[in-house]
Each structure stands twice: as structure tokens, then as C-alpha cells.
Amino acid sequence: MAQTFGILGFIFALLAIFFASEVMRRASASQAEMAQALIKARHRLQKLESRMERAERMAETNLLQKKRQVETITAMAEKGDKDTDGRDHEHFTPSSHKERKVG
User: Fold this and answer.
1) The predicted structure's pLDDT at residue 56
2) Which residue of 1, 6, 22, 61 sits 20 to 30 Å from the alpha carbon of 79, by its own alpha carbon?
């Protein structure tokens, strides 16, 4: 009788070891999948951040260009006002306008 319980105990121990190893294997596989998903998510996030930075730079460049256009148009309008007064009949160039303002 003791031998029977000993054999049954040994079989149950082997079964428990097999069950525990299977649970650990599945947990390890699940952890690896999660790690891969995390790496992919980080990569996507970096791409998104890069695109946002590029969009911000493009917006800043666009605003700067608009500001320059406004300045040029304003300078041309001022030059046009001067020309209509009959005092100065030179053609407008941005460099000549700059020289007059600075000099």
C-alpha cells in the first residue's frame, strides 16, 4: 500500500512539474510577444514624434516666409508711395530698400 501511494505521489509530482514547465513556457512566450509589441509601439511613437517635429519646422518656415512676404510687400508699397509723390523713380529692389533703411 505504501508503495502504491509512493508511486502515485511520484506520478503526481512528475505531472505537477510538467504542468509548471508548460505554464512557464507559455508565460515566457507571452512575455516575448509583449516585448516585441512594446518595441514596435516605441518605434511607431518615434516615427510620430519625428513627423510632428518636421511638421512644426515646416510651420515655422511657413510663418517666416509669410512674414518676409509681408515685409517685402510693405516695403514695395512704401516705395510705390514714394514713386507716386514724384520724388524717386528708381525700380524697387529689396537690396536697395535695405541700404536706404540701414544707411
Assistant:
1) 97
2) 61
